[in-house]
Specification:
The protein is built from twelve helices and 18 strands. It is α/β, with parallel strands linked by helices. The strands form five sheets. Strands 6-7-8-11-12 form a five-stranded mixed β-sheet, sandwiched between helices. Bound molecules: arginine (ARG). The site of arginine (ARG) has 15 residues, from loops.
Length: 415
């Protein structure tokens, strides 16, 4: 039990506000079930060395614990699910959710057996797809990309509606946690569900500030998903402008956060070919006279133009991969543009993206590896004005096609 004062269960005022609490998933048994036969279906391009991936992930968790300095800074999604499963209704709801979301898997044939599993048994089924009777589901190796399970905006949360069958169970996992875990009792009415026929994944949403969010219209988030999310946010939260970024529908840029993330409120790491060179792909969505049944889409040439227009601030764009177009593409593929900000100006990325780190250094960041950061700071967080880019060794993790931002779902940050 933590001695620190409790944090709000949901509170994200901005993308880089000092982190208080984050949900992660350290890869486990489910990752060891990815094989050449099912890898493509499970959205993996390669077979990860699980033990090494776990160590890399453990370092990420230690970084968060050290930098945040609270012992409840990091929550594991499987622990939350297991705790939620203490309630009978949660286990029933989870099975009902799977049946409803994945009618093609015919889980109803084993409905009573699944509902009869205890918390351990159902957790194992949820992550590995294995049960003590002849029903199987896909394992969920993408659970480590907790970002995509939901998106917290202010004190509200949008539940994801995964675009792919491989990730559909993860949406049900997160839905069960928000609906049944006691941690979310007070904020349950702030959980926003989108219509069944749209897709939306958390990696497509970035919170600029209390008034502005960005949403990618991508391989994973449909136009209907963007518009439904925009309408809900404009209606129910302090958000006044939703900037929609139309992305190529391609694996390398599956979510907006694969090509654009914030290092501090005015510094972003960007993949130039999409964010700077492409034109006419950005729209500002607003409610006409505050009426969310009447949405207006104002086209803007670039994301920069849209951002500057609605926030009145100016932004520095640091190039993922630096100036060389080949390095830009190589480093984008290994999530060079997918930085996670622990607080403004304290970011973590993958060590291998060296040209991106050179570009950050040129922007005034001190570059340190994760081990030195941990040795140096132990459990005292660095002074809040230092600009630091931490290099996490992620040779295994990066093969999952997600970076530090994808592996984190912040629940609470300070303003
Ligand atoms: N927010 C992100 N960019 N997430 C990356 C998810 C990667 C994962 N293998 C997938 O294809 O779904």
């Amino acid at each position: 039990m933590s001695a620190e004062p409790a944090v709000a269960p949901l509170h994200i005022p901005s993308e880089t506000g000092p982190l208080q609490q984050v949900v992660v998933h350290t890869p486990g048994e489910e990752m060891a079930l990815v094989s050449p036969e099912n890898a493509e279906e499970l959205l993996f391009d390669d077979i990860l060395f699980v033990e090494e991936a776990r160590e890399e992930h453990a370092t990420l968790v230690r970084l968060f614990q050290a930098a945040v300095g609270r012992d409840d800074a990091v929550l594991q999604v499987t622990a939350l699910l297991h705790e939620a499963f203490d309630a009978d209704e949660a286990r029933t709801a989870f099975v009902d959710g799977l049946i409803e979301r994945m009618p093609y898997r015919n889980f109803e044939a084993y409905e009573s057996e699944l509902k009869g599993l205890d918390a351990d048994g159902l957790l194992r089924f949820a992550t590995t797809g294995q049960a003590p009777f002849p029903v199987t589901a896909l394992p969920t190796p993408n659970l480590m990309f907790t970002r995509d399970l939901s998106a917290v905006v202010g004190g509200h949360v949008l539940l994801s509606h995964a675009a792919t069958a491989a990730r559909a169970p993860e949406s049900v996992i997160m839905e069960t946690i928000y609906a049944h875990h006691p941690r979310f009792d007070e904020v349950r009415e702030n959980v926003i569900e989108l219509p069944d026929d749209v897709s939306f994944e958390g990696g497509d949403l970035l919170v600029v500030d209390e008034r502005v969010v960005l949403i990618g219209q991508s391989e994973r988030t449909s136009l209907g998903g963007v518009l439904a999310a925009a309408r809900e946010l404009l209606e129910r939260t302090s958000v006044e402008h939703v900037i929609m970024v139309n992305l190529p529908k391609a694996r390398y840029c599956m979510h907006l956060d694969t090509v654009f993330t914030f290092a501090d409120p005015e510094t972003c790491v960007v993949f130039p070919p999409i964010i700077e060179d492409a034109q006419d792909h950005t729209f500002v969505i607003e409610a006409v006279d505050g009426d969310t049944s009447d949405l207006r889409l104002r086209p803007r040439r670039t994301l920069r133009e849209a951002l500057e227009d609605v926030t009145g601030r100016t932004y520095s764009f640091v190039k993922c991969g630096g100036d060389d177009p080949v390095r830009q593409r190589r480093e984008q593929w290994t999530d060079g543009a997918n930085l996670f900000a622990i607080r403004p100006g304290l970011v973590v990325g993958y060590d291998r993206n060296r040209a991106t780190y050179d570009a950050l250094r040129a922007e005034g960041f001190h570059v340190v590896d994760a081990e030195s950061f941990l040795d140096f700071y132990g459990d005292t967080a660095p002074s809040s004005d230092a600009r630091i880019a931490v290099r996490l060794s992620g040779n295994e993790l990066s093969r999952g096609r997600g970076g530090p931002r994808c592996m984190t779902m912040p629940l609470a940050r300070t303003a």
